[in-house]
Amino acid sequence: MSVRAYPHSQVVAFAGATLAAVLVIGAIYVGSGSLTRFDTPLAAYAAATIFAAFGLVYRYLMWVQRPPTWRYFVASFRLIARPKSFVKSVFHLIALLFKNIVAQKFIANRGKGRWFGHMCMAWGCLLAFAITFPLSWGWVSFGHDGVGNYIVEFMGMRQFAFPPHSIIGFLMFNGLVISAVMIITGVAIAMHRRLFDHGAQAVQSLENDLIPLFLLFSVSVTGLMLTASYKLMGGEHFSFLSLLHAFTVVVLLLWMPFGKLFHVFQRPAQLGVQFYKEEGANGPKALCLRSGQPYQSEMHHDDLAQVMKEIGFDFGEHQNLSPEEKRKLIALNQAAALGEVPYAG
């Protein structure tokens, strides 16, 4: 199994990121009918998505080209694509997708409250993105049929009409409000944990934990302020609030490639790691040179040894010892050093 040369990773990442940005620009141009349906007040949002696409793809390609990640990546695809078990692997992948991405059960194992807060933030963000991106790119537009109904158009093609005061109308016009409430609920639960849970306080950082929550909260609150302005205050201060909301959204999008929110794009790759672990668990085991006992999968041992060599570390036969035997050797060598008796095992 080959691993890409690390010195060329920046070139690959830059090329891939540039291509992603160009594709987003092309999608905006084509989807908006050569910009005829593009809403210029939303230009800042559209521009931010272009820069975010560049940053996200650049970081993702840099991350995936790291020798350990790339080895996992390639091995996972090979395991899934095996002809004899391909159908079974596809169904297993769908099950893992539902369990780990849709239902996020791995977080439920850490606490129901934590799971509920994370679900609110995750699905609130996805709902907001699903609404905001097509609108800011000019893909979705609304028209009027002349008899009191709104018409939804996608890329210039009529989809359906709905009365403004119907349930569909309520959901259409308040989708971002619903997402904002979900996100604020999730942020409140997360902040409560970070303020009162000593374990969370011990490992949290401003950059990775607090700033993402602050950005999500800012986008949601300013969005709700826009709704309050035109529904409750007759449009008072709407221009200022729209600029403030746009600013928070742009900062959030530009921050995504650099902060903890990047894990949203890393998480799907973890599904393949599950295949790797299951294959290793069912396959042959590596045996310790000293004790003769199995201590990990042979596949993982061999891949780890190869990756260590690729990044400039070769521990020789020491790599063929179990963690328990390595700890024993450390204790024996420390005891020998204290007693001035050299020992090597």
Report on this model:
With 345 residues, the protein is mainly alpha-helical. The chain folds into two domains: 267 residues, no CATH class; 56 residues, no CATH class. Helices cover 67% and strands 7% of the residues. It has 14 helices and five strands. The strands form two sheets. Strands 1-2-3 form a three-stranded antiparallel sheet. A two-stranded antiparallel sheet has the order 4-5. Helix 7 runs antiparallel to helix 9 and helix 9 packs antiparallel against helix 10. The radius of gyration is 26 Å and the shape is elongated.
Topology:
Layout: H1 9-31, H2 43-64, H3 67-80, H4 86-102, H5 105-108, H6 112-136, E1 140-144, E2 150-154, E3 157-162, H7 167-196, H8 198-203, H9 206-232, H10 238-255, H11 263-266, H12 270-282, E4 285-287, E5 294-297, H13 298-310, H14 323-338
Helix pairs in contact: 1-2, 2-10, 3-12, 4-12, 6-7, 7-9, 9-10
Keywords: Membrane, Transmembrane, Transmembrane helix
Transmembrane segments: 12-30, 42-61, 115-140, 167-189, 210-232, 238-258
Organism: Fimbriimonas ginsengisoli Gsoil 348
